[in-house]
Amino acid sequence: MTAPKQEKWIYKNKDKLDVKFLGPISAVFDFYAGIKKRPHPIFQKMGLEWFVRFLMEPYRLWRRNIVSNPKFLLRIIHQYFSQSEVRRKE
């Protein structure tokens, strides 16, 4: 299952499962199976593995990196400031 399908499935089904943790694993199986190579460890250490993967597969990953990530960041920022406002009122 690809992103964001796996995240949506987890959110929809989390209450039906008797587990303590649910987490998407993205391309982990592809890496372990040898189907895809991980970027150089330098990029992994710098936290830029996603960027190298995007450059290698832009047509597959463009929506996730160009559309979904900024939306996600905006939601986090909005939630942070909403909670800050609630804390100030208390």
Automatic annotation (TrEMBL):
Superkingdom of source: Bacteria
Keywords, alphabetical: Glycosyltransferase, Transferase
Molecular-function annotations in GO: hexosyltransferase activity
Pfam families, sorted: Glyco_tran_WecG
InterPro entries: WecG_TagA_CpsF
Protein name listed in UniProt: WecB/TagA/CpsF family glycosyltransferase
Species, as recorded: Thermodesulfovibrio obliviosus
